[in-house]
Specification:
The protein is 21% helix and 42% strand. It is α+β, with helices and mostly antiparallel strands. Strand 1 (14-25) and strand 2 (28-37) form a beta hairpin. 4% of the residues are buried. The mean pLDDT is 88.
């Protein structure tokens, strides 16, 4: 089943994606995690990490900040 933005209402579903990039920070490869609203495709926030994944608390903080932003 293919999902498309028109299947959702704004703020109904959010997607977290890990982007494999060619971005380097201090000569180390970095991963970017983005939080996207499924309906609007608006990027609500992001995290940039070297070699390790964000902690559960960092993801929680990302969602909390996005929730505040989405209410504006």
């Amino acid at each position: 089943m293919k999902l498309t933005p028109d299947q959702f209402e704004v703020n109904e579903a959010w997607i977290v994606a890990r982007m494999h990039t060619v971005m380097f920070v201090k000569n180390e490869p970095a991963d970017i995690y983005v939080l996207v609203d499924a309906a609007s495709t608006y990027v609500l926030g992001h995290l940039v990490y070297l070699a390790e994944a964000p902690s559960p608390q960092e993801f929680t903080d990302l969602f909390k900040q996005a929730r505040k932003q989405s209410k504006r």
